[in-house]
Automatic annotation (TrEMBL):
CDD domains: HP_PGM_like
Protein name: Histidine phosphatase family protein
One cellular-component annotation, GO: cytoplasm
Binding of substrate, residues: R16, H17, G18, Q19, T20, A21, W22, N23, R66
Xref: Gene3D superfamilies: Phosphoglycerate mutase-like
Length: 217
């Protein structure tokens, strides 16, 4: 899947929210609305200063407060309005939400293992990863299509939602999405539009992307 317009050179920066208390406790947050810690707010401020240097044209964000608070830091520097939408929320994971990693393994070990194998699993009775991509990826593409040539969109969302969106935009089969790996708090991935659609330029980055020099441009 790629953008529908012919413009090239557009970028989509997918930025994960800052740290929360549940991140520290290794609790599965899902769609539970958890606030940033003070450290998480500091992460957002530092990252926003870097991302502002990309001179984004638009910012969209999950309406959950951890993502909204992260986006607000970039909006304050760029003077851009933020469009919030539930389409960018983290995966709803039903009975898994609020449980620690160890509790999930103890209670839902087979389900967890099947998910890690790349099988379609409704974790805790919640959403499939493909369903998350079905809501998030079209929303991101819709806003990317509004960008000017060489424009940049910043998407402030959640680790699982970002991974599934990247997988969908790159055209990867769902069982390969886990291979993208996770994002640290307030790190981001960058997709660039090329001749054959979207390509992954940066993943789990905490510094601004550098030009690619060499034979793989």
């Amino acid at each position: 899947m790629s953008g529908t317009k012919g413009d090239r050179g557009r970028r989509v920066v997918l930025w994960r929210h800052g740290q929360t208390a549940w991140n520290l406790e290794r609790r599965f947050q899902g769609s539970t609305d958890i606030a940033l810690t003070e450290a998480g707010l500091g992460q957002a401020r530092r990252s926003a200063r870097l991302l502002a240097a990309l001179k984004p044209d638009a910012i969209v964000a999950s309406d959950l407060k951890r993502a909204a608070a992260t986006a607000r830091e970039l909006a304050a520097l760029t003077r851009l309005d933020v469009t919030h939408d539930a389409a960018l929320r983290e995966t709803y994971a039903g009975d898994w939400q609020g449980l620690t990693h160890d509790e999930i393994l103890a209670r839902y070990g087979e389900q967890y293992t099947a998910w890690k194998r790349g099988e379609p699993v409704r974790r805790g009775g919640g959403e499939l990863e493909t369903e998350v991509a079905d809501r998030a990826a079209p929303f991101v593409l819709g806003h990317a299509d509004k960008l000017p040539e060489n424009g940049t969109l910043v998407v402030v969302s959640h680790g699982g939602t970002i991974r599934t969106t990247i997988g969908r935009l790159l055209g990867l089969e769902p069982h390969h999405w886990e291979g993208l790996g996770g994002l640290s708090n307030c790190c981001w991935s960058v997709l660039g539009e090329g001749a054959r659609g979207w390509r992954l330029l940066e993943h789990n980055a905490g510094t601004l992307p550098e030009p690619v020099l060499g034979d793989d441009v």
